Amino acid sequence: MRMKPNRNFLLGLCSMLALGFLYYSSGRISLRGWGHKSLYDKQGFLLKLDASLPLELVYKYGNLSEGVCKPGFAAAKMTAIYPKFNKLAPMFLDPNYRQFSKISDFSPPFGIKAQEKIIDILLAATKSYGLGEELDSMSCKTCIIVGNGGILTNRSLGQRIDEFDVVIRLNEAPVKGFEKDVGSKTTMRITYPEGAIQKTEHYEAQSLFVLSAFKSLDFRWLRHMVFNQRLYSTDGFWKSVARYVPRDPMDMRILNPYFIQEASFKLIGLPHNNGQMGRGNIPTLGAVAITMALHNCDEVAVAGFGYNMSTPHAPLHYYEKIRMSAIKESWTHNISKEKEFLLKLVKAGVIQDWTNGLCGVEC
């Protein structure tokens, strides 16, 4: 005789089917107790990454012509692989920076705690807080971060780099004499006191000078540069620093420290260390610049990134003869974990790597 299904059994079966549907349709529910694995890694990134567009982005960007700037593309792709991404993070500090609460609870480099007074003085002097009227008014901006790697040598990428709306350079990497490979255009140069160009003749004719402050002393150094005051002492810096920056105050900016905080604690997953600078928890300036661009640019590319330690005799930087073998273990950075993060962005097509130094044969 056939038994009729028990009502409770049917209810339980329906519940299980509903949970299964939710799991496979959204990919957000992890039924670890039933042997299923999460679709996301511990940082919150999709485990399975590829450069193909999700269906909703195909509808949005699929019909755009080749070479046309895609509004919101980098942020949309970033959100697709990292749902916790929130685009609302201004590029530079402005007089309303206190409203950006995520930086108020941390001291440099992760925030502005105890630096408000000097920041107010600096912002009152610079009076400008964006990229400039023309760039700020653009509805779609393409950005490229030009790293300093020797991988740029003999690539002849200069003309293509100059075609970007925003060209971001780092520290003291020169342009003059290397235009064929690195371009001649500089929208901004992000640096810190020890990394800034020291010979004034090496500066571009025009560009924004952007401070990324890694310690409280960096803000005091910037005050000397903004007000063109003589720097009597360099105590507290780990090497020599620039004593003069040939820029008007209106061409100087302070990078939002939230990008250091986000890159370190959220995206790369470096040690929190109670919000203090510690061993292996400071992202490189390149990773910080990329994080900033994801929030403020519609399309993002990089060039000159990636160290290949299997080629110790290759040039470390495009502008000097130091070899790859000169790289030593860094106290502040974790290059391997940082590369894992950047590799995710390249594999998923969030950023384009023109010199293929991040992926190599992995992409």
TrEMBL record:
<keyword id="KW-1133">Transmembrane helix</keyword>
<dbReference type="InterPro" id="IPR012163">
    <property type="entry name" value="Sialyl_trans"/>
</dbReference>
<keyword id="KW-0735">Signal-anchor</keyword>
<dbReference type="InterPro" id="IPR001675">
    <property type="entry name" value="Glyco_trans_29"/>
</dbReference>
<comment type="pathway">
    <text>Protein modification; protein glycosylation.</text>
</comment>
<dbReference type="InterPro" id="IPR051142">
    <property type="entry name" value="Glycosyltransferase_29"/>
</dbReference>
<keyword id="KW-0333">Golgi apparatus</keyword>
<keyword id="KW-0808">Transferase</keyword>
<comment type="similarity">
    <text>Belongs to the glycosyltransferase 29 family.</text>
</comment>
<keyword id="KW-0325">Glycoprotein</keyword>
<protein>
    <recommendedName>
        <fullName>CMP-N-acetylneuraminate-beta-1,4-galactoside alpha-2,3-sialyltransferase</fullName>
        <ecNumber>2.4.3.6</ecNumber>
    </recommendedName>
</protein>
<keyword id="KW-0472">Membrane</keyword>
<dbReference type="GO" id="GO:0000139">
    <property type="term" value="C:Golgi membrane"/>
</dbReference>
<keyword id="KW-1015">Disulfide bond</keyword>
<dbReference type="GO" id="GO:0008118">
    <property type="term" value="F:N-acetyllactosaminide alpha-2,3-sialyltransferase activity"/>
</dbReference>
<comment type="function">
    <text>Catalyzes the formation of the NeuAc-alpha-2,3-Gal-beta-1,4-GlcNAc-, NeuAc-alpha-2,3-Gal-beta-1,3-GlcNAc- and NeuAc-alpha-2,3-Gal-beta-1,3-GalNAc- sequences found in terminal carbohydrate groups of glycoproteins and glycolipids. The highest activity is toward Gal-beta-1,3-GlcNAc and the lowest toward Gal-beta-1,3-GalNAc.</text>
</comment>
<keyword id="KW-0328">Glycosyltransferase</keyword>
<dbReference type="InterPro" id="IPR038578">
    <property type="entry name" value="GT29-like_sf"/>
</dbReference>
<keyword id="KW-0812">Transmembrane</keyword>
<dbReference type="Pfam" id="PF00777">
    <property type="entry name" value="Glyco_transf_29"/>
</dbReference>
<feature type="disulfide bond">
    <location>
        <begin position="143"/>
        <end position="297"/>
    </location>
</feature>
<dbReference type="GO" id="GO:0032580">
    <property type="term" value="C:Golgi cisterna membrane"/>
</dbReference>
